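Homework help board

Subject: predicted structure for assignment chain

Our instructor gave us this sequence and asked us to write out the predicted structure in token form, then describe one feature. I got the tokens but I'm not sure how to describe them. Can anyone check?
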Amino acid sequence: MTTPLAGCPRGRRLGAPGSAALPLLPLLYLAWADGDLEPEELAVLRDRVGRATWLPGADRAWVRCWLDPDDPPTAEDLLALRRTVRQLAEPAPDEARASLSALGLELELRAAGGEESAWTAPGARAALDELWSELGLDVPAALAELDLEPRAAPPPAPAPAWPVTAGALEAFLDGGRAPLRRRVRALLAGPEWRTPDLPRAEYRAWVLDRVRALAREGFGALGFPAPYGPGDLGGFLTVFETLAIGDLSVLVKFGVQFGLWGGSVYRLGTERHHAALLPGIATLDLPGCFAMTELGHGSNVREVETVARWDPARAGFVVHTPGPSARKEWIGN
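My token output:
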């Protein structure tokens, strides 16, 4: 740690590894933190530092230069001093944060790499304890001032308020739509819903047949407004979510047919489009696709390059794909 501080004519660098002044850093900060050193405090500090025979002369002189009432540290000096203490103390264990003496010695111990130092001399720790006591500093308040209160232990996990059984967990996860979830799970439990091992074309036909079965159950129309459905978008999403425990191709085709294709007609169309298209979409008599994903940027809707413009002369839309990156390689459904 080599944080430079002003206010010391010897140009010392505070926090240099092995500095015997380190245990006194919290003391120096807190002594000046109230904005001034009382004469009594100054006398105690200068006397104790002068009698600290285990402090090397250069360290003793450096500390004494911080105790000069004619050259008090500036606000910037104190902020740098506090920052140095916090940086050195950050990895310190909690027991070192419960005592100002222990905290000071921990700073020096860490800077010295755990080796013996001046503060291992007989009486050094006792002298530091006595100095804190004579200054009458409130330890918890001092630690709070340095923002170094002992870290609070995490509270114990509360005991569950309900018995953790399979039934209780299922009820919690199913929430307010438990009957609908149970209905979908019961459907998926049938042998005809187990994913078969078939060639691609036959498997796709099986998936389409399963989605038609979901439409016959009324699940496809759940999110559509009356008179085309109950307008229960939450119910539709519940079915979609629960289908994930079964065949995922069925899940995707269900979502594209009734959510993307049907949802686009519902949200972007007018009543004329609703009447003409939604009944067939809900029953899967009118299958549709959703051409959002483009070769150059996946399903990033903001980057879709294809543009559809209305041509009054033709009474229709002209769809323009400007380049290869806009090709629709993976049209949903």
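Reply (TA_rk): Your tokens look well-formed. For the description, you could write something like this. Residues 1-7, 9-18 have pLDDT under 50 and may be disordered. That's the kind of observation they're looking for.
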